[in-house]
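cron nightly-structures :: item 1 of 1
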Amino acid sequence: LRIFDDLSARRILDCTEIEPHREGPLFARLSRTLGQGESAAIAIAHQRNLGVALDDHAARRACERLNPPVTWIATEEILLCATTEVRLSLEECRRIWIATGIADPNRQIL
C-alpha cells in the first residue's frame, strides 16, 4: 500500500470506482468468466475510453473481443515506460515488480 500511496501522491497512479449505471452491465457480463478486478478495470476502460493494465491472458482476450476493443498494456511495459520517462527509478520499478508477485520466468523487467 505504501507504493500505491507514493505513486498516487506523485500523480503517476490514480484509483477510481465502477459507476454501476455506466459500467455495471459490462462488468456483470465480464464477471461471468473473469475475476472482479479484471472485469471492473475493463468495464471502466471501455466505458471511459481508456486503456487498461492487465496481466491475465483471458482478460486481454476479453478486451480484444469488445467493440470497440480496449487497449491493454502489461505491468512490465508500464514499468519500462516509467523508467524511460524518468518517472520512476529502476529500483522503484524493481520493488513494484516484486510486489506484483508475478513469477513467470518469461516476464521480467530490467
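cron nightly-structures :: done
The first helix runs from residue 2 to 9.
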